[in-house]
Amino acid sequence: MTHTTMRAMVIEKTGGPEELVAADLPWPCRVGSDVLVAVHAAGVNRVDAEARSGRADSGAVRTWPAVLGHDFSGVVVEAPYAAHPLRPGDEVFGMAAFPHTSGTYAEYISVPATSLARKPATLSHVEAAGVPLAALTAWGMVVEVAKAHEGQRVLVQAGAGGVGHFAVQLASYFGAHVVATGSQRNSGWLRDLGADEVVDYGSVELSRSVRDVDVVIGLVDDDDVAAQSLAVLRPGGLAVHAPLRSWRAFAAKAEAKGVRSTGFAVCPDAATLAVLSRLIDSGDLRVHVDDIYDLADAADAHSRLEQNHTRGKLVLRVADE
Ligand SMILES: NC(=O)c1ccc[n+]([C@@H]2O[C@H](COP(=O)([O-])OP(=O)(O)OC[C@H]3O[C@@H](n4cnc5c(N)ncnc54)[C@H](OP(=O)(O)O)[C@@H]3O)[C@@H](O)[C@H]2O)c1
User: Closest ligand 1 atom to the C-alpha of 222?
Assistant: First the structure.
């Protein structure tokens, strides 16, 4: 192979979006059962912005300069061994380690074979890169923890976001009655995704329009929003929450109210990615890409993400398709 360096977007220190700068780095070294992938597109996630700003778990950034990014879609350059089911040229998508920064804002990445699956055939690389981390999180919260099923009332707080738009679809797919919160402009779109009810959080107090919820999928790190979630759960109901800065207080309030609560943390998972890929190719699950940025414009993507009104996903284009 002739290339020895690659383009990447790195941070030298934590801070605002302007800390994301271009760099030439050596190709990653493929070891053991890793797969070397040429990244065609990289999804942008809130956890990337949290690592960039220094709000992520300490230790999320292990080496400096740090290449951010967890989600990727691309093409296999080198498989672990000759008899491996993946071959050079195969199209794959996946999620590298989390919460450690794993470096998909780059032209190449080396990831464990357990972190990726074949790309959904019906999606472009840009679309596929928007799926892994958010859809795995939604699957984990809605399907594995909450066990979404017919007759269950599921409230998705922030239904229009990256995780939320998958959570709404998966809860609906498994037969639950889905209530989603979102702004007025997203109301019709959320119903189209499968929400039975949409509550405009900007103009309606949740507890005035929703009650007796079995499960809350909590995707807003805000004490007032979390308190509203507890207020609408039925006794014995379940709050599945993405990390809240005030988690201990939330869990104590949940217990006092007689509802169950748990956090959730996503893991790379090739088998679930393959299931999600099949659901996408069968038309049962959609990804919405709100905007596409060139890799060099990663800072703009982070600024946009931090406005907190992304519909679905933002994606970085790394290679021309
Ligand atoms: N622990 C894990 O494994 C894990 C994994 C992934 C994500 N997360 C966390 O999960 C959360 C959601 O992530 P994400 O990627 O889905 O975020 P995101 O895409 O950036 O979420 C943006 C969405 O949030 C909605 N929103 C903002 N404030 C709201 C409110 N008060 N009520 C209802 N909706 C509101 C916006 O809808 P409108 O435009 O309609 O206002 C927008 O569509 C983040 O806190 C993230 O860190 C955790």
Answer: 31
* β-strand pairing of 289-294 with 213-218: unpaired
Ligand 1 atom nearest 185 alpha carbon: 40
> Which atom of ligand 1 lies nearest, measured to the CA of 160?
43
131 neighbors 288 (Cβ within 8 angstroms)? no
Q: What is the dotted CATH code of the domain comprising 5-131+287-317?
A: 3.90.180.10
Are both 5-131+287-317 and 134-263 of the same fold?
A: no
Domain ranges in the chain are 5-131+287-317, 134-263
Query: Is ligand 1 within 6 A of the CB of residue 239?
Result: no
CA 257 to CA 261: how far, in whole Å?
11
Q: 134-263: which CATH number, 3.40.50.720, 3.40.50.2000, 3.40.1670.10, 1.10.150.120?
A: 3.40.50.720
Q: How far is CA 191 from the centre of its chain?
A: 21
CA of 83 to the centre of ligand 1 (A): 41
Residue nearest to atom 46 of ligand 1 (CA): 46
pLDDT in single tens digits along all 321 residues of the chain? 556 899 999 999 999 999 999 999 999 989 999 999 999 999 999 999 999 999 877 667 878 899 999 999 999 999 999 999 999 999 999 999 766 667 999 999 999 999 999 999 999 999 999 999 999 999 999 999 999 999 999 999 999 999 999 999 999 999 999 999 999 999 999 999 999 999 999 999 999 999 999 999 999 999 999 999 999 999 999 999 998 989 999 999 999 999 999 999 999 999 999 999 999 999 999 999 999 999 999 999 999 999 999 999 999 999 987
User: Rounded to two decimals, what is the model's pTM?
Assistant: 0.97
